[in-house]
From TrEMBL:
Pfam families: MFS_2 (PF13347)
Protein name per Swiss-Prot or TrEMBL: Major facilitator superfamily domain containing 2a-like 2
Superkingdom of origin: Eukaryota
Length: 95
């Protein structure tokens, strides 16, 4: 049975995260401005917030790739194999 793009949970999840990520970036400068207003002695906070956000983004991506790779390794994934055991198929569906 084929699933349509509307019924595919991975497509809907991607749209959910893409929409919320956009809101985060649009609010980051407002947060920096608000902190600067509340603490006038603190100057130049924007690079700190941007670099901290970038670091967390990169760390999350790296952890995601590492966890995916380890999961596939422990389930018995073999690169170039024409067929895989059921555990690998399930892991790929869950990832």
């Amino acid at each position: 049975m084929k699933s349509s793009a509307l019924g595919d949970p991975s497509v809907n999840l991607h749209k959910f995260y893409a929409g919320h990520c956009h809101h985060f970036w649009s609010m980051l400068s407002d947060v920096v401005d608000e902190i600067a207003v509340q603490n006038p002695s603190c100057k130049g906070l924007e690079p700190l917030f941007i670099s901290g956000s970038r670091f967390c983004n990169k760390l999350g991506g790296g952890l995601s790739a590492g966890i995916s790779t380890m999961t596939l390794h422990f389930t018995g994934y073999k690169a170039g194999a024409c067929s895989h055991v059921d555990e690998v198929v399930l892991a790929l569906k869950l990832l």
